[in-house]
Write a structure and sequence with these properties.
Number of helices: 10
Structural class: alpha+beta
Distance between the termini: 69 Å
Radius of gyration: 30 Å
Number of strands: 20
Largest sheet: 8 strands, mixed
Oligomer: single chain
Strand content: 15-25%
Length: 494
């Protein structure tokens, strides 16, 4: 059986991998204006031709470039959809109308699958009705009547459908090509066309490489065209700002609307994507950590962002103190608490993480540790969070916590994130955490590999019980403490 051939692989989750497509029609000059968005977007036309039965050698070996876009689109920077139209020859099988649904189901593995393409067409074109229909077959799977499997051949025989494959001319348009096929045809030959693609609500977020930048507007338009629900495409133009965790971006296509809505693990969030940090790739990690919390626990979220830990923790029945230095993140954090009706469970702060720990947290921690609830610190700022661990040194003084020796106090749990480029990232983050705490954590912590961020760069989470030797340290070398006055940025949500 000839069932091999080229199956273009295309993932539409968070990352898009680009693939291929053949030639006909010259691209129109883009001149000084943008092409009409509606041009070239007509439905597939099935050109009526004489159907000629094929012998076993009736069709040639399928051209591996059968679905290549016309070579004339190479180098196009202004999207002209009409230039992608082409005529190809595909195998078809003639089926009585009365058996079409049954046979189509039986032959679904060999039917032609293209975006926007009807697999079943009228025998004599769109104008005329007849007693038979044509089922378009995939030329990479079927080249003759002998290529049907035993099950497929039996189904045809049972329905009295001749096992006869014929040719049919078909016009493919821009609508029938996949994103990766279009981009590989347009970008310089031999250059990588893969591109990171994160979906944040209605926004597609790209990280284009230098050789892709001249085609960025075209890439943006293609992504809007091919992805229902995407109405804005942006490209990151600089690295993430460590202070506020946001970055500069350029709108490539669609509306310039950065306020978006997302749903993660059953929780709804709204925020301005251009002003805050949000990464859809962290959904699993958010759920992993929050699932370790129990009703009644106290969560101290040092770098809370718009609330991906704080809000679900509050929904789980935890009491949350959530802080973020970015005023926009703080604003949307409060908004998302209200949106998810967890206002009474969350107190928000807008201050530096170290000041948060050594200010409002220090004030409350003795009473929290004297209670029955487990206290968790979440420190999700992987570029810097490990450096903030020194804020725990001598956070509490021993004489005010005499109950510790009686075993009544439960020490806090810490979940701290960090990046590592070392060959052994687990060892690296443990060493750095130990150095900043001034206490050896080897053998007293667990490390979870969150995700691969880039080649040779891992995001890790180190979790441990905060040692009493650190929390009640009498070491005088401590970070600068904030002013003793009560911070104005504290807000209990109504």
């Amino acid at each position: 059986m000839i069932r091999g051939g080229c199956k273009g692989i295309f993932r539409v989750s968070e990352t898009y991998y680009c693939h291929i497509l053949p030639p006909v029609l010259h691209p129109l000059s883009c001149g000084g204006g943008s092409p009409d968005w509606t041009t070239g977007r007509s439905c597939v036309r099935a050109c009526a031709t004489l159907l000629t039965p094929m012998s076993d050698q009736g069709l040639p070996t399928p051209d591996p470039g059968l679905y290549k876009a016309p070579s004339t689109v190479r180098g196009m920077t202004c999207l002209n959809r009409e230039a992608f139209a082409q005529t190809i020859t595909v195998p078809v099988i003639r089926i009585p109308k009365t058996a079409i649904h049954k046979i189509t189901k039986c032959l679904k593995k060999v039917a032609l699958q293209r975006p926007g393409l009807k697999r079943v067409i009228n025998e004599h074109g769109d104008e005329e009705e007849s007693e038979h229909k044509l089922l378009l077959l995939d030329p990479t799977r079927v080249t003759s009547s002998d290529d049907f499997s035993e099950e497929e051949a039996a189904a045809l025989k049972a329905s009295n459908v001749p096992q006869e494959v014929t040719r049919h001319e078909l016009t493919l348009t821009y609508d029938n090509l996949k994103t990766e096929e279009i981009l590989r045809a347009v970008l310089p030959e031999g250059q990588d066309v893969t591109s990171g693609f994160s979906r944040v609500g209605h926004i597609a977020h790209l990280n284009l490489r230098d050789h892709q930048l001249p085609y960025r507007k075209l890439i943006g338009e293609v992504i809007v065209d091919k992805n229902p629900g995407i109405t804005c495409v942006v490209n990151k133009t600089n690295t993430i700002d460590s202070t506020y965790r946001n970055f500069q971006m350029e709108v490539l296509a669609g509306e310039n609307n950065m306020v978006t809505k997302v749903r993660e693990n059953g929780v709804h969030y709204e925020f301005d994507f251009s002003q805050v940090y949000w990464n859809p790739r962290l959904s699993t990690e958010h759920d992993r950590v929050v699932s370790t919390f129990n009703r009644g626990d106290v969560i101290l979220d040092v770098f809370a962002g718009v609330g991906p830990f704080a809000v679900p923790a509050a929904r789980r029945g935890c009491t949350v103190l959530a802080n973020d230095l970015n005023p926009e993140s703080h604003r949307w954090l409060k908004h998302n608490c209200q949106l998810n009706k967890v206002n009474p469970k969350v107190t928000t702060f807008n201050m530096d993480g170290r000041e948060f720990i050594r200010g409002p947290v220090r004030e409350r921690l003795p009473a929290l540790l004297a209670g029955d609830a487990t206290v968790h610190f979440v420190m999700n700022l992987p570029a810097l969070a490990l450096e903030f661990l020194d804020a725990f040194k001598g956070l509490l003084v021993p004489e005010t916590n005499k109950e510790e020796t009686s075993g009544k106090l439960c020490l806090p749990e810490v979940h701290c994130y960090g990046f590592s480029k070392e060959d052994d990232p687990q060892k690296d983050v443990v060493m750095r955490a130990s150095a900043n705490l001034g206490f050896e954590l080897e053998g007293r912590c667990s490390v979870h590999m969150v995700r691969n961020v880039a080649p040779n760069k891992e995001m890790m989470c180190v979790s441990f019980t905060l040692p009493s030797e650190v929390l009640y340290s009498t070491n005088t070398e401590r970070p600068d403490e904030p002013a003793a006055k009560r911070p104005k940025c504290e807000e209990q949500l109504d």
